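Researcher:
Attend to token order:
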Amino acid sequence: MIIPVQPTKPFSKFSPDETYSVSSLHENPRVGNGLISHQVHPQQKLAVMELLTEHQLNSLSRLSHTPHPIEEEQICLPDLSYSDLNDIQKAKLVTLIKQYPQVFTEKLGRTHLVKHVIELQPGTQSANTQPYRLPPSKKAIVDQQLEEMLQAGHITPSHSPWASPIVLSPKKDGTLRFCVDYRKLNANTIRTAYPMPQVDDTLDSLREAAFITHRGLYEFLVMPFGLSNAPATFQRLMDLILAGIKWQSCLVYIDDIVVFSSTFEQHLKDLSSVFDRLKTAGLTLKASKCNFCRKELKYLGHIITPDGIKHDPGLIDSVKRFPQPTRLKDIQSFLGLTGYYRKFIKDYAKISEPLLAKIRSHQNSKRPPNNIEWSVECTIAFERLKTALTQAPILRTANFNEHFILETDACDYGLGAVLTQEYDNKKFVIAYASRTQTTADRNYFPTEKDALAIYWATKHFRPYLEGTKIYIRSDYRA
């Protein structure tokens, strides 16, 4: 789910003089006219895609590589002081970036390649919520942001029967972000899974996204922050724009793009290809959030390095500070945090079994107890998971030119597996996997459990193993 493995040029194969060839690009928040916003937190429903016309598809396939003369003050240049480049390479990279003033700008991008439509559940009644009260200091901020959005053509006065209140959410830099509380709207929209079905005719139904302030009711002319299923719309758009080069020289997860190459000169060509496609689609990049030519790169809660992939220490801190659970919800939250990195932890399911048992014991209860009986076994599991994450190894990215070794194990109540590779006289761990046994599984004989472990592990790691040479090691001794 996180850092997909690139099948032809693994990250782990970047030699020291090639580590500058990984760059992270971060798109500006919105894409328009059926627009799209980044960092959207999905809740349930939202997007219907407009079929691309033949002209739009052709425009993406005829991307121009002709440099465009520009004025330097029009460009928002990224900070290259932290890149692993010499002065000559930096100059070449800056020259390339300056050819794309339409891409590196503070202006929000707009694309007409997709439209975002809110599809309500049948029989839904409109919800008209009164605005939340704000102090005068925050009203001034709302006034300023409303004026900016009106001038930019992102909103317009509305007569929609729907009205959602606004909230001001603090950013990391201390400023406030203009948000809309769409919980009632999201609760009545239809969930859309990606990939979404193609729809010939779509309705321009962004009126439902209207919001109310102390200055009245407005509606978005672009897709706003906070609507459900917005990530699916953006991902669909990015898959279209980067079709043909995704997995070959770049990866994309919603609005985060990673470009990787084997040499610096090739990296410039790969970056140019991505920039051309973004320019043609009408999207822009936020220069301050772009990272070019780094030895280490943070991506989706992981750190990509020349040696492999490791977890993000910043996210691990939240696990280390997690207090001892007192409610079932606390256990679920803790397992959700640690489960995100379970591929780094050997026998995760086995270690977490006492905590999972607590959840299972109340999963059919109509009214689970507020407090739980915390046992010594729970404490041991809780602390072992914290320690395991703190000491988690760097996972090597798969080398598809080498064979794989799959090590499996079955105990009384769990299955475990380790995917490894051995070359250059070294053993590399690619990933760990584990799961608890079902009630039926626990009735198997030991031989059957070991066979089950092999079957489950090969299925789990199928994206790595299919079409490659595999050695399987089981701990069972007949």
Residues 264-281 form the longest helix (18 residues). The chain has a mean pLDDT of 76. The longest strand covers residues 426-436. Residues 1-296 form a domain with the HIV Type 1 Reverse Transcriptase; Chain A, domain 1 fold (CATH 3.10.10.10).
